[in-house]
Amino acid sequence: MQMTARDVMTPCRHALTPEQTVADAVRVFRKASEDEGRKVFGMVVTDAADRLIGMLSMYDILLFIRPKHIHVWGTMDDIDISGLVDAACQQAGAVRVGDIMSTDLISVTPDTHLMLLLDLMINKHVRRIPVLEDDHILGIVYISDLFYHLLDKLTA
Fold first, then answer.
1. Domain holding 20: CATH number?
2. With contact defined as beta carbons under 8 Å apart, do 109 and 132 qualify?
3. How far is C-alpha 27 from the chain's CA centre?
4. What residues make up the domain containing 130?
5. What is the pTM of this model?
6. For residues 119 and 79, is the Cβ–Cβ distance under 8 A?
């Protein structure tokens, strides 16, 4: 029996829009985490027609919060960083999702073989891949779900 993305994907119940703020997105991440019973670290971004236009992950948010040229400041104990975290978070909260989301996306169909999924995730260093059928988002394959699915096969 061929194992495919359909076998390990999680249905896509939550999505962001590019107009939402990062603060709004964090609230949606929390709600999605409650609804799914596990931490959600990335989410699809859709347009008005519910087409996939981007992904927003915790990495995108953290990358935005981190000062871009922090490495030229020296070590953290060389500088006064009091208030830096609060200021960065306050500024980031008002930024629009569309300004920091990832748009160079990889997607698969529900019939994509698990080994191809595994290869894509490893080679492209991605932790989640949207599953699309006729431009409609069916779900997301998380690398953790793929891992545990394969573990079950290893221990069966």
1. 3.10.580.10
2. yes
3. 14
4. 5-155
5. 0.85
6. no
